[in-house]
Amino acid sequence: MSIPSFLKLVEIQTKIASVFPFIIGMLFAVYQYDLFNWENTLIFFGSMLIFDLTTTAINNYMDYRKATNNHDYDYRTTSNVIGQERISEKTVIITIFVMFLIATGLGVWLVVETDLLVLLVGFVCFCIGILYTFGPVPLSRMPLGEIFSGVTMGFGIVFLAIYVNAYDAGIANLIWSGEWVTVKINIIEVIRIAVVSLPCIFTIANIMLANNICDLEEDIRNHRYTLPYYISKKYAVILFNTLYYASFAAIIVSVIIGFLSPIMLVTLIAIIPVFKNLQKFNAEQVKAKTFVISIKNFVVMNSAIVVCLAASLIFKYI
User: What pLDDT sits at residue 225?
Assistant: First the structure.
């Protein structure tokens, strides 16, 4: 398998959706808890990224196998990697298993370095990631895809990126003693992390929502009934807009209640490009033309958050 074919199979350009939550969680761990463990951070990043590549490869392979209309399908821009046999199915399956084993090995290593809560949260994210693409009715083919993708990546990655650095800071822990398994959670800290991660949750959910809006007619032909099918394209577009404005509202709330520095209000400048992009998406929902708007808005918003979090750290330690 050539490198270009592999990168196309795993849709490397979409991995930015994992990287930003990771960076935000890492920065927040330093900002809020004054803790940073470079070894755990690197292990987690490797495990997270490789697992993301694995689930994408599984998703593309399963879509290829389940396609009912080859003329319409075309592997969702990556089907030709297998469809034209530039990569054999056997090679794809072997690649998936190798990546899965590497990601799992790194995850086990991380559990050894931290504690069992990482195993629990990681296992939940793992199950969602697999069920998202695998099984008789994958989550991606149901009206739940936006929720699971947003929460798993937007909250799950942020939480784990924080926890692997601050696992002994009183956020939560899992203790296995004899026949007893005890889970202790600091509700305030978990709520703090959840609120801070809301922009990630919403903007990641919107990437999938935009994809499903643009692919609505094709999905129906392929018996794939996603959220826009149930609430209609009109209300799906309204939801798409609402989630961006809710992201900005979450930042304002986080500053007001003291979860984030007032410096974070500078991120509100991002409303201008986000609003302009939304006008283009509202005018037409065409995959080749306007789906990229969800990616652009994701990058704009989360870049602003990363820059302002970094600035908050600088001012904190001056």
Answer: 85
Our CA dihedral for 278, 20, 215, 245, rounded to 10 degrees, sits at: -30
d(CA 16, CA 195): 21
Determine the Cα–Cα distance for residues 36 and 292; give it in Å rounded to an integer: 34
The Cα–Cα gap between 61 and 254 comes to: 40
Phi, psi of 226 (to 5 degrees): -95, 180
Q: What distance lies between CA 172 and its chain's CA centroid? A: 22
Q: How do residues 9-26 score in pLDDT, each as one tens digit?
A: 888 887 888 999 999 999
Domains of the chain in sequence order: 3-317 (1.10.600)
Per-residue pLDDT of 172-212, as tens digits, reads 988 887 888 888 899 999 999 999 999 999 999 999 999 99
Q: Which two tokens stand for residue 201?
A: 């949750």
Residues 6+ apart with CB under 8 A from 61: 82, 89, 92, 93, 96
Q: Given the structure tokens 């209309």, which residue do they identify?
A: 69
